[in-house]
Amino acid sequence: MYFEVYRAPFVRLTSTLSGGGDWRWRFCRPGGIIVAASQGYPTETECRHSIAMLACGAANAVVRDVFSPS
């Protein structure tokens, strides 16, 4: 499994509003199957920092069940 770091395509939404151009990561299985994807980060450094945090913390993470109130 591996992380891919990429820059989202820059897209013009309207004549005055643009989107994209932010940094993102995807966690992939062999064959390029995406398992998880990130939000956008303003810098590559912040994007890579979030990967480092996941890589360090995931091994010790617990799973919590959250139930909606009835």
From TrEMBL:
This is DUF1508 domain-containing protein. InterPro entries: DUF1508, YegP-like_sf. Residues 21-61 form the DUF1508 domain. The lineage of its organism: Bacteria, Pseudomonadati, Pseudomonadota, Alphaproteobacteria, Sphingomonadales. SUPFAM superfamilies: YegP-like. It comes from Tardibacter chloracetimidivorans. Pfam families: DUF1508. It comes from the Bacteria.
